[in-house]
Amino acid sequence: MTSVYTRTPAGSARGVSVVRADYGVMEQEDADRTAKAFAQWRRSEYGDHGHVDVLGPAKTTAEQDW
Questions:
Q1: b/e for 25-52, b at 16 or more Cβ within 10 A?
Q2: For residue 24, what pLDDT is reported?
Q3: Cα Rg for the chain, rounded, in angstroms?
Q4: Which pTM value belongs to this model?
Q5: Kindly report the CA angle at 3 between 43 and 42, in degrees rounded to 5?
Q6: CA distance 26 to 40
């Protein structure tokens, strides 16, 4: 992971997180696993709801709601 940014937009009860990672093209499963793990951690740690995007420099992306 290179950075994580989380915010809750004004007037919304759902958080929005962006995780930047250095996953390459052939590492889609790693990006998917990271999104799932982040969503599980966020739900268990904070008990809130939201959405995470995991972004890699080689157009490797993954999404997960929590």
A1: eebeebbbebbeebbeebeeeeeeebeb
A2: 85
A3: 12
A4: 0.89
A5: 5
A6: 24
